[in-house]
Design a protein that fits this description.
- The protein is an alpha+beta fold.
- The chain is globular and about 35 Å long.
- The two termini are 26 Å apart.
Length: 91
């Protein structure tokens, strides 16, 4: 069944994939996003994490570029990020 799931995506694994999580600006948002992604990824390369505040400064987006190995891996990351209270949106 996992072969069928792999065909449900246009991505070819492994591949570099950018995950963006957004939430209200706070000191721990970057660390929370990275900690959640690390649960599912063996290594996050140096320079793979960036963050940017909205023009008004109320919101921050954190982007983590990973080497994705499967669609189930990405689904699990998105699920964990989406369920955290500090994170409002995940792209």
């Amino acid at each position: 069944m996992s072969e069928h799931n792999e065909q449900d995506t246009l991505l070819e694994f492994p591949c570099d994939f950018a995950i963006k999580a957004m939430g209200e600006t706070c000191d721990e948002l970057d660390a929370v996003v990275v900690e959640i992604v690390r649960r599912h990824v063996d290594d996050i390369a140096e320079g793979a994490v960036s963050s940017r505040q909205s023009s008004g400064g109320k919101f921050t987006s954190v982007t983590v570029t990973i080497r994705a190995t499967s669609k189930p891996q990405l689904d699990a990351i998105y699920q964990d990020l989406s369920s955290h209270d500090l994170i409002k949106y995940v792209l």
